[in-house]
Amino acid sequence: MILEATSDMDHIPKPTEALMFVIYLLSIGSLKDDECENTFNEPRGILLSRYSHATQQALINVKYIKSLNLTTLQAYCLFLLAARKHYDAHAFWILTGSAVRIGQRLGIHRDGSSLSLSPFDTEMRRRVWWQIVFLDGFAAKLCGAGYPAWLAKFDTKLPLIIAGATEMLFCCIRYEVSQAIRKANRFGDGHREAHGGPSTFLQVQTSLLKRIKRLMNWKQDFRTST
């Protein structure tokens, strides 16, 4: 998508433009001050401000609140990821809440496998939705809002995990932790008995810990190989 867009800069779709700018923003954010100076001959702070403003303007141009485009929502989620340290906790929680509502409006809280979608579309929907789950859970924790009730009301499966080390490992670990928190809260006070009692709760907890441990081992293998 990005390569195709760069081949015709005068006719870039607005959702793709927003996605490109937020990728630039995240890329600059991953660099150190001296790396920015050496690579771009400009201070990191100025570049971050420039691409943050450009991303926000691109999201406004594409009318992200009303948009039914998955790429637009993907760009918005990545912007929230990049900006999470620059907003007041309660303001950030409100912004992640809008991502939840947009995602629900797009229907990505329902798994694509039950909607006869292609494997690719199904996987992309899962990745975006679980990024939203992580972001809103993170925001709720920051501002002390507690467990979001909507987390119990979706059936989107976790993104597929390919055996071995890939660039998706870090995201997959995040998703697994989000799933663990979600399931743990389902077995919270007043709910354990309805879901099978303490023994079932411990079984779920043990299973999730094993999955996360396996992912962590893959992550270590990935670091070693690179």
UniProtKB/TrEMBL annotation:
CC terms in the record's Gene Ontology section: nucleus
Keyword terms of this UniProt record: Nucleus
GO biological process: DNA-templated transcription
Main location: nucleus
GO molecular function: DNA binding; zinc ion binding
Localization (cell): Nucleus
Cited Pfam families: Fungal_trans (PF04082)
The name this protein goes by in its record: Xylanolytic transcriptional activator regulatory domain-containing protein
The organism of origin for this protein: Monilinia fructigena
